[in-house]
Amino acid sequence: MNELSSLGLIDSHAHIQGSEYASEVEAVVKRAQEAGVERIIVVGGAGEISSNTEAIALAQSFPHVYATVGMHPHDAKDVGTDELKRLKELTADPKVVAVGETGLDYYYDHSPRQVQRRVFAEFIAMARETNLPIVVHERDAAPDATDLLRAEGVGKLHGVIHCFTGDYDAARVYLDLGFYLSFTGIITFKNAQPLRDVVRQVPLERMFVETDSPYLAPVPHRGKRNEPAYVRFVAETIAKVKGLALEEVARVTTNNVRELFRI
User: Fold this and answer.
1) How does residue 117 score in pLDDT terms, banded at 50, 70 and 90?
2) Which 3 state secondary structure label does DSSP give 220?
3) How far apart are CA 140 and CA 145, in angstroms?
């Protein structure tokens, strides 16, 4: 356990402010530290708009936890002028390091696509105006997402594509836009060889690791509630795929997150 605790990993995307962790947050954070996770980015915009204030409150409770503010594309239909104004106000909190998550999800289409695009453009503008990076969720919507990022933010915007699951052609487009790609426990799944092939090709200097807790728990915890401690399984898989030491993957991915989020 001592060897693990010195790894210095960062879970760059977790939703541990949710009800799934209710009275257990301190224990979850402690287990993460014991597993070598030195920092956790708690991502707002998961469901209710209140998830943002909950993320900030959690970040304020722990010196090594930070927050982001945004709204998931599933809930874009609930985002109007008042919500955008409130979220922009929240970006002023010193513990807030990014705008997001935001983006486009054409797989579920829980919000109309034109509404998703409008709200995504608003959040891109917010990131530019606040000089914060952006955390992007994109599923089955790469052409529209990249078009919006080019049109609204090219040269003025930096960020990360969280939970990247596309092919290398899609990866290359995002890399050319200057974005990082973040990988989850999906890369540990038996049927994820195509995604591991992408991992092999993407430069480590452009990668983040994340859990997306409570979702996407990696092997050997697949099917259970995820938590930041398990981000090391993502890093271990990257190390194996790339033929690198785990410590090197931890060092580089942590430096990447520190550089983007300025922490």
Assistant:
1) very high
2) coil
3) 10
**Residue 183 CB contacts under 8 Å (≥ 6 apart), including other chains:** 163, 164, 195, 199, 207, 208, 209, 210, 234, 238
Residue 25: give its domain's CATH number. Answer: 3.20.20.140
Looking at every residue in the chain, the average pLDDT score rounds to 96
Q: Closest Cα partner for 135 from 61, 237, 46, 200?
A: 46
219-256 confidence digits (pLDDT tens): 999 999 999 999 999 999 999 999 999 999 999 999 99
Run of H or E including 68: strand 65-69
Average pLDDT over residues 15-28: 95
Going by the DSSP 8-state scheme, the letter that residue 263 receives in this structure is -
* Alpha-carbon gap, residue 40 to 255, rounded angstroms: 14
Q: Rounded to an integer, what distance in angstroms lies between the CA atom of residue 249 and that of residue 32?
A: 17
State how far the Cα of 180 lies from the Cα of 171, in Å rounded to an integer: 9
Residues in the chain: 263
Contact 94, 63 (CB under 8 A): no
Cα separation of 167 and 198, whole Å?
Answer: 6
Q: Which structural domain range is residue 59 located in?
A: 2-261
For the chain, how many structural domains are there in total?
Answer: 1
